[in-house]
UniProtKB/TrEMBL annotation:
Protein's UniProt name: TrmH family RNA methyltransferase
SUPFAM superfamilies in the record: alpha/beta knot, L30e-like
Methyltransferase recorded as keyword: yes
CDD domains tied to this protein: SpoU-like_rRNA-MTase (cd18095)
GO biological process: methylation
Family recorded in the similarity comment: Belongs to the class IV-like SAM-binding methyltransferase superfamily. RNA methyltransferase TrmH family.
GO molecular function, one term: methyltransferase activity
SMART domains in the record: SpoU_sub_bind
Domain RNA 2-O ribose methyltransferase substrate binding: 31-107
Keyword Amino-acid biosynthesis in record: no
One Pfam family it belongs to: MRM3-like_sub_bind
Gene3D superfamilies recorded: 3.30.1330.30, 3.40.1280.10
Entry keywords, A to Z: Methyltransferase, Transferase
């Protein structure tokens, strides 16, 4: 096992640079922090290239599953000290393991063409990393066929987004797309585009969501953008008999996704 102990090492500098979007875009790489997340990535056979492990933890056995997983999958394993780990990490107190992986290259045309009666989550200008990660996690939980993240949203491979997905990024296709190109493709495959808006007259529970459905959620501050609004087939709102003016975007998407799941399970 190779060992690196200097923060001046050229590879360490390259890994640390992945905290910035421009370097992630240039290299098509991203990194994953934390024992549980890295274990999940290995179990899901995510496209990992290198795993950095803290030298102090190797003798304790806490990283045995990760060490064994790298051997079986042919992933490079490098031992590092605390200084190197902290230099590369995005968190203030890294857990002792960081994985470097290749960004997913999902094909939206192939995904859409292969699904029957699918449920998709479509996200327009979602800015908060925690919200984006939570939305992906909820879509994974209900068994959605995929998530489409429109340009203008926070970077899918932002380290905070990766942590917030809690591993769901490794379980279902999540694709960054131009929404203008996406909607015609969805309609070609009989998918109804449904937008969520507080001003819509038709409430969520009155709408049939059992057919091919794409749920569109807009930004936390402004909702679905003007250009995208023209592409919506049907609008729905969440009933709010209380005094709250609106819901957090991640909470709203979770409610809609679970109502869709409820309807589909009832119909079975």
């Amino acid at each position: 096992m190779e060992r690196i102990t200097s923060t001046r090492n050229s590879r360490v500098k390259d890994w640390a640079a992945l905290k910035q979007k421009k370097y992630r875009d240039q290299t098509n790489l991203f990194f994953i922090e934390g024992i549980r997340l890295v274990e999940d990535a290995l179990e899901s056979q995510a496209p990992l290239e290198t795993i950095l492990v803290l030298d102090d933890l190797i003798p304790t056995g806490r990283l045995d599953r990760i060490v064994n997983g790298t051997h079986s999958l042919g992933i490079e394993l490098i031992e590092v000290n605390q200084a190197v780990l902290e230099h590369v990490a995005d968190t203030k107190t890294p857990q002792g393991v960081i994985a470097i992986g290749r960004q997913y290259q999902h094909n939206k045309e192939g995904l859409i063409a292969s699904k029957t009666n699918p449920l998709y989550l479509v996200l327009d200008n979602i800015q908060d990393p925690g919200n984006l990660g939570t939305m992906i996690r909820s879509a994974d939980a209900v068994g959605a066929a995929g998530v489409f993240v429109g340009s203008g949203s926070v970077d899918l491979y932002n380290p905070k987004v990766i942590r917030a997905t809690m591993g769901s990024l490794f379980h279902l296709p999540v694709i960054e797309v131009s929404l203008r190109e996406l909607f015609p493709l969805l309609r070609q495959h009989d998918v109804t585009v449904i937008g969520a808006s507080t001003g819509a007259e038709e409430e969520l529970y009155a709408v049939d969501l059992t057919g091919g459905t794409a749920i569109v959620i807009g930004s936390e501050a402004h909702g679905i953008s003007g250009e995208i609004r023209q592409q919506i087939d049907k609008w729905i709102s969440l009933p709010m008999p209380g005094k709250a003016e609106s819901l957090n975007a991640a909470i709203a998407s979770s409610i809609i996704l679970y109502e869709t799941l409820r309807q589909r399970k009832t119909k079975e």
